[in-house]
Amino acid sequence: MKFxxxxxxxSFIGMVAMFGALGSDNQWPGLIVAFAVWAWxxxxxxxxxxxxxxxxxxxxxxxxxxLLRKLEQRS
Length: 75
Prior knowledge:
The protein has 75 residues and is an all-alpha fold. The longest helix has 22 residues, at 2-23. It contains three helices and no strands. The two termini are 46 Å apart. It has one domain (2-74). The chain crosses the membrane at residues 7-22, 28-46. Keywords: Membrane, Transmembrane, Transmembrane helix.
């Protein structure tokens, strides 16, 4: 859902910037804005997702060990 919102927002901003560039004497500011918005969008898609930190991994390991201990005590 977040992807679609970003896509529509970037498309709209890029379209407005391109139309603004068509109607002005100096086209470069509009073109720069349009391409910068698309570059930001592609960058936001390509950045790595949040990785599990060591603290999270250790917490998960502790939970697994506790679960295994409880299962061993039952049998």
